[in-house]
Amino acid sequence: MEKTKILIGMLIIAVLLVGTVMAHENFIETKKLVEEKVSCNNLTNEQIEEIGDYYMEQMHPGEAHEQMHNMMGGEESETVKLMHVNMAKMMYCNNGEG
User: Fold this and answer.
1) Angle, to 10 degrees, between the axis of helix 78-91 and the axis of helix 45-59?
2) Highest mean predicted confidence (pLDDT) among 2-6, 11-15, 71-75, 83-87
3) pTM for this one?
């Protein structure tokens, strides 16, 4: 029974680590855009959304980020997408207009 608990614990840790690594890999291209200070006029809507998601991850890393997504309807919800776009426009594009 104790071995089972240890194995389950190790499995949970492994899943969390893989999720964290994958989340960081998703931001490699986005981080590159931010670091290169690519003009918002030269970004697609999807890239702007990703930049907002990247900024959100910086402010609320890992599980906190996922919890916020869940509170707003889930990762793929229009509410989350719009929030990411508006965050990028405000923080990256210096444009408070949505």
Assistant:
1) 80
2) 83-87
3) 0.69
